[in-house]
Amino acid sequence: MRIACAQYAIGAPARFADFVDRVAAEAAVAAGQGAQIAILPEYLALEAAAAFEPAVRGDFAASLRALQPLHEDYLDAMRAIARRHDLHLVAGSFLLDGGGGRYRNRSYLIAPDGRSVFQDKLTLTGFEKDTGIIEPGDRLKVFDTPFGRLGIAICYDIEFPLYARAQAEAGARLLLVPSCTDTEAGAHRVRYGCQARAMENQLFVACAVTAGEAAWSPALDTNTGRAAIYTPVDRGFPDDGVLVRAGARDGWAVAEVDPDALEALRRRGQVGIAGDWPAQQRPAVERAGVESL
After folding, report:
1. What is the distance in angstroms between the CA of the first residue and the CA of the last residue of the chain?
2. How much is the pLDDT for 54?
């Protein structure tokens, strides 16, 4: 399967229709490179808030309130893009009001026939906690697709090994990571999280990112990171576990991944980390004993 991870430069669309046209044009580029799965970044829907008046787009909570009536239009646009290009599309994320002005950071996976599933972000960053209006999701999922079983980990969630482990144990061999970071440290944390999860679970991790500057938004003002696809670090894979990484000015990181290679690795790799994982769960080593010296 061929995967495309967006390195999406945040702009300032004057209308919602302009936002949709931009996303559609970017998806066409990925499809033109043969992508079957395309991943758009976390907080993508917030770019559409640039069309609101300054008092709204410059206020995070006001932006989220103003975006809610566009939720179905957003999904319809993403379904149309997936259908047009025969893509399985991770439609970035949309902060959706679940009631009482409490929002969940939700990422949809949309099939070419328009069917969709979603994963909510499970652990909140400091910024998200400080808003006082975002709440964490409460269910971890995996999804059956024509490409096999896969999971979504939204940005910060990829830094927590037990989420990915649970998805791997449920059969996921590919994790899709829509992300948005505003510092180099944040970008490195996501990168190292992706690489660690790929190594620990002997699977593929594909990460999309926001890029560039958007001074009009308090949440998308600065964007860092590089789109990339990560692999296990073992026989038959890159020595550094990086299959492809976008350049500074690239819009997509695109590469072919072979799920069969993962199964071969599990049978005859130099190490068997995924299979050896339970060794950590022996009673004598689950908690460190304290001894005096």
Report:
1. 55
2. 97
Task: Round to whole Å and give the CA distance between 208 and 8.
Answer: 8
Q: Give the pLDDT band (50/70/90) at residue 175.
A: very high
Q: Which two tokens stand for residue 7?
A: 């390195």
- β-partners of residue 134 are 103
Contact 75/122 with Cβ under 8 angstroms? no
d(CA 24, CA 21): 5
Concatenating the DSSP letter of every residue in 169-213 gives HTT--EEEEE--BSSHHHHHHHHHHHHHHHHHHT-EEEEEEEEEE
| C-alpha span between 146 and 122 (Å, rounded) | 26
Structure token pair of residue 4: 């495309």
Q: 137-141 long-range contacts, Cβ below 8 Å, gap at least 24?
A: 137/104, 137/105, 137/106, 140/166, 140/167, 141/117
Reported as a single tens digit per residue, the pLDDT across 3-23 is 999 999 999 999 999 999 999
Strands 228-230 and 204-213: antiparallel
Within 8 A by CB and 6+ apart from 3, the residues are 35, 36, 37, 38, 39, 174, 204, 206, 229, 254, 255, 256, 257
